[in-house]
Amino acid sequence: MKFVKRGPPGFAPMYAAEAEGLRALRAAGMRAPEPYAHGVHGAEAFIEMERLELGGPADWPALARMLASLHRNIGQQFGWENDNWIGLSPQHNGWSGDWGEFWRERRLEPQLAVARSNGFSIDCGPLLQQLPVFFDDHRPQASLLHGDLWSGNIGFTHEGPVIFDPAVYYGDREADLAMTELFGGFPREFYAAYAQTWPLDPGYSTRKDLYNLYHVLNHANLFGGSYVLQAARMITRLLAQMGS
Fold this sequence. Notes:
This protein is an alpha+beta fold. It has eight helices and eleven strands. The protein is globular and about 55 Å long. The chain starts with a strand and ends with a helix.
């Protein structure tokens, strides 16, 4: 069976990036929908993919082990060959040999530029200046990431867990884990199983706020409201943790 998403013609590049991301996940051995076709038909853009029957048992440890397996796909650099989308927002990629630089230039700064154009007053200057401090003792590998890993983008079939709606790139695996904690979080058995499979480095509890700041800024730019205040609070908290 097939599942089809449709949108205005301007969604065609977004659907093309989604198909590319799904192919990357599947090539890495993940259970994800197989993309069949995408493009524009008449007045609509579309992506056609495998229909997965969700509603299977929620095997969170299996999802954690599957994610750790994804993260063991290691690239030579951070980033991705093409730009893609995080939700409805463009996500800038390209390649970089420096993870901290990539996070500043391809993740935080583009969102902050959109925030300024939206008229939001979010002062991230001091944090950006001290960003290298977060990586003084942390040298992550360039893991293949899902990129948009929240509860709405995972599911369970009777054959096991599945992931979909990716925003793939190579980055610090902690960025995927951090996002799982952002909107309500996953059950404790998920984190316990991941830690048993591949423990996280010391300092993750601080870095996860830095990684989630990207997603909160994106939500601020998409929806405004309380997300703007949440971003400001996160920046204040991160600076306090650095002793600034």
